[in-house]
């Protein structure tokens, strides 16, 4: 084992030397008390000490302490008083919250949720602030000054893309294109939780329905727009046809509409280019229409709920544009001195946007594009930006009360007369409330009460190494849905138990049969089946499992004088319990 010595040096790194290097099989904890250096040794099960400068006077203080690791020496003597630490005074350096000493000066800082005002000493709770995602970080930053650039301490972020929040419970939600997951956490970074981690390919867009407590997302890889509850339950595919690369998505729950951008590669051109469009539908995916076509790569959709206008960025022909919510009265707000605008949000009289090339955050008047000002710079790879303020999540619909009476999903619908040719600006919550409809997870159907969901009665299941997918043969439904069962590795065979609505499968690593409810709850294990069991069957209402074993065989001899003997092995099983027939595929040895 390599011996790692204890060393000492001046604070500037000079005069470095060894204090002790002999008989240190596994030094661990290290602390100082007076003239002595104390440490624990995990292998020798001891606490030792030695003179901190000479390495002499070594002795064992305590012996035979199993699993001894951490160590801290404490002295309650008077503290050092000749320090010139400005934070050590009674007034905390003048800071209202945190005072952080540095080699030549000090700075005031705030806890999460607070911001420094212009005096650089006082922390306050801001009325509004900016949230943005970039690569491995979720950050918040002041909307007014450059004093407050803070990384929210969430763990496990690999490549954050879309970002949104739910102001009622103070949570943030984000998509991660590298992990292929949607995750949430509280604003202080606590309780990080993956809510969707199956069946995602490239979730580029995402939006929170703060009224019905649902989450919507657009997946450019699977070419779908889906919805689920905020905890990931009751997942349903809303739109899965005629989508190329759905990207940014925004919601208007009060009026019952959703809007999204879609990119398509035009290969008919001599040099293929990306063409974009903005589409609109009811929040259940119905009443779909193209709002604005013939765009470049449009992104950063955001809605001004007060003035009933839609804003977006143009990535290829750099610009920020706006229209009303019917796609009319389209104007270009900002076109000059732009590189590649990407993220966009709106608050009060201003729009805020990010530039992919420069990393800048700028703002301008939302109506004229004037009063343009750079408020932050060189924040690289910002993928999404939004303003955290309750004005961004106002409004009401019938889903707000008892989930609209629905057992699973409550989806807002437009009010009568708010279709393609209606003037949405004339519709208010006081004169017309949006309708709603109950919806079910993919492949589930509504009962006669139009509120309760019933499980599917006819479907196929298939496995693909690490996933199990349900395939529906019912017209009008999204054909496939990945089941939320975790820990699948090299799935070799699958079975279904209709009495408990559970999935059984052969785990290729352990060669055991495992079982879990189709909703992905905790699993149970059955007996091992061996390395040569490609198929099994679970008879309904039976505790038994039928397993095929290709390692077993039987012989069939046929022919005349030159008899031929063939050895057969059972491979696949299928049982018809109603006809009491067992089907099997046999293979020759």
TrEMBL record:
Family annotation (SUPFAM superfamilies): Growth factor receptor domain, YWTD domain
Signal sequence segment: none
LDL-receptor class B repeats: 170-212, 213-255, 308-350
Keywords, comma-separated and alphabetical: Disulfide bond, EGF-like domain
Domain spans labelled EGF-like: 108-123
Residue span of region Disordered: 514-559
Compositionally biased spans, kind Low complexity: 526-555
Domain of life: Eukaryota
Pfam families in alphabetical order: FXa_inhibition, Ldl_recept_b
Keyword Transport: no
Protein name: EGF-like domain-containing protein
Taxonomic path: Eukaryota, Metazoa, Ecdysozoa, Arthropoda, Hexapoda
Gene Ontology MF terms: calcium ion binding
